[in-house]
Automatic annotation (TrEMBL):
This is Protocatechuate 3,4-dioxygenase beta subunit. PANTHER family: DIOXYGENASE, PUTATIVE (AFU_ORTHOLOGUE AFUA_2G02910)-RELATED, INTRADIOL RING-CLEAVAGE DIOXYGENASES DOMAIN-CONTAINING PROTEIN-RELATED. The lineage of its organism: Bacteria, Bacillati, Actinomycetota, Actinomycetes, Kineosporiales. The keyword ATP-binding does not apply. InterPro entries: Intradiol_dOase_C (IPR000627), Intradiol_dOase_core (IPR015889), Intradiol_RC_Dioxygenase (IPR050770). It comes from the Bacteria. Belongs to the intradiol ring-cleavage dioxygenase family. It comes from Quadrisphaera granulorum.
Amino acid sequence: QSVSNSMMWRAPCPLATPAGHSPRSHLLADALNNEAYRNATEATVFGPFFVDEAPQVEAGGDIAAGAPGEPAWVEGTVRDVDGNPLPGARIEVWEADEEGLYDVQHDDGRTYGRGRLVADDDGGYRFWGLFPTPYPIPDDGPVGDLLAATGRSPLRASHLHFMVSAPGCRTLVTHIFVRGDELLERDSVFGVKESLVHDWEHHSAGTPTPDGRDLDGRGWASTRFDVVLAPL
Ligand SMILES: [Fe+2]
């Protein structure tokens, strides 16, 4: 797209192996570099609630792990910019519960609403999580002063965090948002990008689930997120 990108040819990401990960030392730079490479998925803010060693979750597993909220099925693929699947890509996800709190904001050491997955041979991934809900960023101290001075709410638009990495690829730190969320226009940290706003479907109670999971009569949501990683 841009002149600088078109002048810099880079090899596509080589096929990933489950044993390997990208170096993670440039996470912040990746999150702040908001110019996506070609058709690569756009990045957004990392945020303060990532935990390095989240539970490993099998394909189709439940990262909510008991966190309250509407169950949501999320699936997609991880590919390079040329469309090649990236089997073994590492997918880390984390989100707040429906009260707007991350596990680490409770003082009892609980772990929920986060997990690590590995893309399958076709680069596919799938998991159960929670339909995202808004939450306030901590607004004490200077952040609160700034929000008050600018007349802004501390609320973040509803989102689900992703960090996706594969050997030879730039680690992607991003979120997906919810189309129709009234907070999209006034996200407290200006993290929203249109390409990251997703359609979510809501399915009424009793609608069969993709994997046959029994939700005890609850309704559920679903969305799809196809990730494209830029080469290093
Ligand atoms: Fe967040």
